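If you are new to this repository, start here. Below is one unmodified record pulled from the training split, so you can see the exact layout before writing a loader.
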Amino acid sequence: MNKIESLEKLREWDFNVADFIRYEPTLTEDELRERINISITPPGKLGIRTCRFGGSREFNLPFFFNLTHREAIDKAKSLFACGYQVIIDEYIPKEISLISGNVLLRQDHSGHYDVFFGDGVVRDIESKKNRENIESIEFVNGDRIKNEKIREAVEEAEDLILFLPKRAFIIEFSYGSKPAGIKLEPLVLWEIRAA
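And here is the target side for that same chain:
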């Protein structure tokens, strides 16, 4: 399952993700603009996320934030032409992020988390920038995690066990100072993948 497919699954399973649409080159520009206006709320700036066809997991794929509708449509077209699957999503400013991170959860509910405190994104952990703002902890039970925002992310991951039996997995999340995503909640999931 690639990044876009995982977002589609999370949305289907009723988890909070950023509003998004998958770019389809068969849509006219007017149809695409209309789909963006209907699907992505609140209206405003947009983001672009990409993955490769075929589902291989790669880091450092192109992504763009804070785009106008015109910029997002142009970027989506050019990225698709370069061989990327593309989603256009609601722009959630990293400045509202309190915590971003990854949670690895095993079937016995033990796991590990890496979180970045402050305005940042999950890529800040993966790129190892600002190590002083990153906390990495192994846990036996998510109920014992002291930071309530991290504990909430782990609880959300535990809810995913029902959908992903018999395997360990990782979720990417952010917890913001303002509600965001399709459910307008502070906790937004960005991806789920096998550990």
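Two things worth knowing about this chain: The chain has five helices and nine strands. The mean pLDDT is 87.
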